[in-house]
Structures are given as structure tokens and as C-alpha cells.
Write a structure and sequence with these properties.
about 140 residues, alpha/beta, single chain, binds D-ribose, 6 helices, 5-stranded parallel β-sheet, Ribose 5-phosphate Isomerase B, Chain: A
Length: about 140
């Protein structure tokens, strides 16, 4: 799977952990668009870049990390065809895929511990979309 990942300064450490995990399991191609250090950076710039790439179909999935995950998910969801899910627990991660076919995962680097965050990431990547009655519903998301 082709994955694009990005963070602001507040999500930098967790973004690095996610990237290392993805590289370690080795089944995904990961493109990191920054931040590349902990210097302050505006999250919308990163979120728009990741969401635009997913919108264009250049990547199957995106991962965005800021302090809470809130600003990243708000920004990414302005893009057509993007369904960014802010997941802070495993159930939400699973349902975001089964029912919502989420294509971007937003994580809160100041909210989640690394262990839980990586489990959320794994569930997000491994869980398929259920389709069926959920397909017309996700089609209705677009305005
Ligand atoms: C940065 O201080 C913080 O506002 C940002 O990372 C994010 O949590 C916004 O939603």
C-alpha cells in the first residue's frame, strides 16, 4: 500500500514512531512530507498536502499527526473524496474502516501513548471496508 504521512511539530515524535513501525513491517511504501524536526509549523499546510495527494489518488492512505489530531482532520476533510478519521481508540479505528472507508487516519501526538497509537495504525491499515449499505452512505458525504 502507498502511504503518505505528515505531522506538525506537536505530532513529530509520534509521526516518526509511525514511520519506523511501517518501515519495520516493510509491507508499505511510505512517503514522509515532514515535519522533519520539532520547530513550530502550521498544521494546515501539512494536512492540505497529504489530503490533496489522497484526493488525486496518488496515495491509497494518509496519516496525519498533530497535537490532538483535530486540526489535521478538520483540514483534510475539506478535500473532495477524503474521509479523515480522528481515532483515539481501537474501536473507532476499526469502525472508521468498516463503515466509513476512511482513507486518512488522524492521530493526536499529545493525547495517545505510542503503544496504543501503533495499534490504532495497524487496525486502520488492516481492516477492510464492509461496503454494502455503507457505500451509499459514504457517497452521501460529498456535497
Ligand atoms: C499545536 O500547538 C496544536 O495546536 C496542533 O498540533 C493541533 O493540536 C491542532 O489541532
Amino acid at each position: 500500500m502507498n502511504i503518505i504521512i505528515g505531522s506538525d511539530h506537536a505530532g513529530y515524535d509520534l509521526k516518526e514512531e509511525c514511520k519506523s513501525y511501517l518501515q519495520k513491517i516493510g509491507i508499505h511504501r511510505v512517503t514522509d512530507i515532514g515535519a522533519f524536526n520539532r520547530e513550530s509549523i502550521d498544521y494546515p499546510r501539512i494536512a492540505h498536502q497529504v489530503a490533496a495527494a489522497v484526493e488525486k489518488g496518488e496515495y491509497e492512505r494518509g496519516i496525519l499527526v498533530c497535537g490532538t489530531g483535530i486540526g489535521m482532520s478538520m483540514t483534510a476533510n475539506r478535500h473532495a473524496g477524503v474521509r479523515a478519521a480522528l481515532c483515539l481508540d481501537l474501536y473507532s479505528a476499526r469502525m472508521s474502516r468498516l463503515h466509513n472507508d476512511a482513507n486518512i487516519l488522524a492521530l493526536g501526538g499529545r493525547v495517545l501513548g505510542v503503544g496504543l497509537a501503533l495499534e490504532i495504525l495497524e487496525v486502520f491499515l488492516k481492516t477492510p471496508f464492509e461496503g454494502g449499505r455503507h457505500k451509499p452512505r459514504i457517497d452521501q458525504i460529498e456535497c
